Amino acid sequence: MHLFRSAYILIIFITISFHTTLASATECSVESGKNRVALLELYTSEGCSSCPPADKWLGNLSKRKIGLDKVVPLSFHVDYWNYIGWRDPYSSSEYTQRQRQVAQRNRLRSIYTPQLVFNGRDYRGWRSNNINSLLKKVNTWPATAKLSFHWQSIAKNTLSASITSELTNKKVSKPTLVVALYENSLVSNVTAGENDGRSLRHDYVVRKIVAIPFSGKLKMTNVIELQIEEGWNKKNLGLAVFVQQANDGSILQALASPLDCQS
Asked: Over the range 161-193, which residues count as b (16 or more CB within 10 Å of their CB) and which as e?
C-alpha cells in the first residue's frame, strides 16, 4: 500500500514537472525589481576605426559578471560614417537622430563615435573602467517605474509581446516607454573603409525601436508586434524596455531578457 502511494506521488510530480517545462519553452514573463537598473547606450559604426574597442568592451560586460539585472546595454549603429566606403549593415538614420537628441540634452557641440551614454548622460569613464562604481550606486536607488513583459515564442517571424509599465512617481516630465529589439553575436567581415580587412563582432545591436509616450497616464499595457527580418538569428534576439524622462533623458527603470525562453 505504501509502495503504491509513493509511486503515485512520483508520477504526479513527473507530470507536473513536464507541463511546467513545456510551458516555459513557449511562454515567458519577466518583471523589474524594486531597485533601479541602469541603461547603457553605445553609439558606434563599422566605418569608424576607433569603435571596435568600445564594441568589445560592451560585449564583454556579461563576462565580467555585469548582467541584465544591473545594466541593460544597447548598441546603436549610426549612419554618418557610411560615406567613407563601407555601409554599416546595422546602421540607421533613426539611431543617428537619437544620438543628436542625446547631444542636445548634454549640451555637446557635436556627435561622435564611439560614444557611451549612461542613464542619459554622456559617459567617457568607460575607458577607465569605472562602470562597477557607477552601478554600485545606481542599483541601490529605488526605481520610479515598474516594468513587466510577457511573450510567446516567435511564430511566423513575428514577435508579439504584452508590456505593462507603471509610474511610481507622479512628478515625472513627459515619460516615454521605449521598446528595443536587439541581437547578439553578430559578425561582419569588413571589406572597405577604415576597418577594411577586419572581422568585427557586435552584441546588443538594436534592430528595431519603438517609443510610446505615457500621455498623462500612470499605468498602461501595450501589445506590440515586431517583424523578425530574414537573416536574424531568433536564438540571439532579446527585448529591452525602459522608461525615459523627456527633459533630461534620465532612466526611471530598465528591463531586458533574451527572447529564447530556454536561455
From this structure: bebbbbbeeeebeebebbbbbbbbebebebeeb
- Residue by residue, DSSP assigns 163-214 as EEEEES-S--SS-EEEEEEEE-SEEEE--SGGGTT-EEEE-SEEEEEEEEE-
| Structure confidence at residue 17 as a pLDDT band (50, 70, 90) | very low
Terminal Cα distance for the chain, rounded: 42
Q: Is 263:153 a contact under the CB 8 Å cutoff? A: no
Taking the C-alpha atoms of residue 90 and residue 99, their distance in angstroms, rounded to an integer, is 15
Strand, coil or helix: what is 239? Answer: strand
Average pLDDT over residues 226-248: 95
pTM (global) more than 0.85: yes
Map out the domains of the chain with their CATH numbers. Answer: 34-258 (2.60.40.10)
DSSP state letter for 246:
T
Other Cβ atoms less than 10 A from the Cβ of 131: the count is 21
- Reading the block at residue 44, the C-alpha cell is 558606434
User: In the predicted model, is pLDDT for residue 143 greater than 70?
Assistant: yes
User: Could you give the CA distance from residue 192 to residue 198 in angstroms, rounded to a whole number?
Assistant: 9
Residues 39-80: pLDDT tens digits? 999 999 999 999 999 999 999 999 999 999 999 999 999 999
The torsion angle over the Cα atoms of residues 213, 217, 221 and 227, rounded to 10 degrees, is -10
232, 183 Cβ separation under 8 angstroms: yes
Cα 218 to chain centroid distance, Å, stands at: 23
Confidence band for 260, pLDDT divided at 50, 70 and 90:
confident
